[in-house]
Specification:
Layout: H1 3-8, H2 10-13, H3 19-27, E1 30-34, H4 40-50, E2 54-58, H5 83-94, E3 99-103, H6 109-118, E4 121-124, H7 129-142, E5 146-152, E6 155-161, H8 171-174, H9 186-189, H10 193-212, E7 221-226, E8 231-236
Parallel strand pairs: 1-2, 1-4, 2-3, 4-5
Antiparallel strand pairs: 5-6, 6-7, 7-8
Helix pairs in contact: 4-5, 4-10, 6-7
């Protein structure tokens, strides 16, 4: 860590739980953020500000006027620009030391597998169940912790899955693929702008704890937030021993 980095991250280093050792782990870490939208925007900003060494950001969309209400990576003059390029411009101006890897196409199992295999932690801010389940399967295959977030209307949720731990569920244990689950998107139902910031920032917090190896990541707990009242509900999520995705996991606890 050079002198500039010691100064930039000094408020982290002052924390006994982090210090130089954990900050150096963050500087050496690689994070994959799936989605550069309402959740991925605040998550990526805080990961970059906190000094994550390499930030991979996957999104195949372009910036639209309707995004600007909550997707704080993007700007008015970037409408029509690829979200990954808009994100690169914002994050480079925030912290040029972060290595940014844009992934404008992550639509095949092979591409997803490659990206997940290179990451220390994966943050999922996607807006559909097909992508969430594909990301989960890749994380289980490669033994990577997954920080999952969602926000719709005034309702947010956060969960951390780490199948390196024998008792941890995976996303499929909580939301089985193939069940008759209603697909809702903010383009149809709306979303309260600051709610995406709250959940996305919580995702960044959990990812930093996992990569920096400090604190207690919220594994096997589903946090539900009612944005109308700011009321949190926490639910313990058990592992499904018959889960077709993670029952025969090859990765064990660290």
């Amino acid at each position: 860590m050079n002198d500039d980095q010691l100064l930039r991250y000094s408020r982290h280093i002052l924390l006994d739980e982090i210090g130089i050792e954990a900050q150096e782990r963050l500087l050496a870490s690689r994070m994959l953020v799936v989605g550069a939208g309402g959740l991925g925007s605040p998550a990526a900003l805080y990961l970059a500000a906190a000094g994550v060494g390499t930030l991979m950001l996957a999104d195949d969309d372009t910036v639209d006027l309707t995004n600007l209400q909550r997707q704080i990576l993007h700007r008015q003059d970037r409408i029509g620009m690829a979200k990954t390029e808009s994100a690169r411009l914002t994050l480079a101006s925030l912290n040029p030391d972060v290595q940014f890897v844009p992934l404008p196409r992550l639509d095949t199992d092979a591409a997803l597998d490659e990206a997940v295999s290179q990451a220390d932690v994966v943050l999922d801010g996607s807006d559909n169940f097909a992508t969430r389940h594909a990301v989960n399967r890749a994380c289980v295959r490669h033994g990577k912790p997954l920080v999952s977030g969602a926000a719709i209307r005034f309702d947010g949720q956060l969960a951390v899955f780490d199948t390196r731990q024998p008792t941890s569920p995976c996303y499929h244990c909580l939301f089985p693929d193939g069940e008759n689950v209603e697909e809702v998107r903010c383009s149809q139902m709306g979303v309260f702008a600051p709610l995406t910031g709250i959940i996305g920032t919580m995702q960044a917090s959990e990812a930093l704890k996992l990569a920096g190896q400090f604190g207690t990541p919220s594994v096997a707990r589903l946090h539900l937030l009612d944005g109308r009242t700011l009321h949190f509900t926490e639910i313990r999520v058990p592992r499904d021993p018959d889960c077709p995705v993670c029952a025969h996991r090859a990765h064990q606890a660290r």
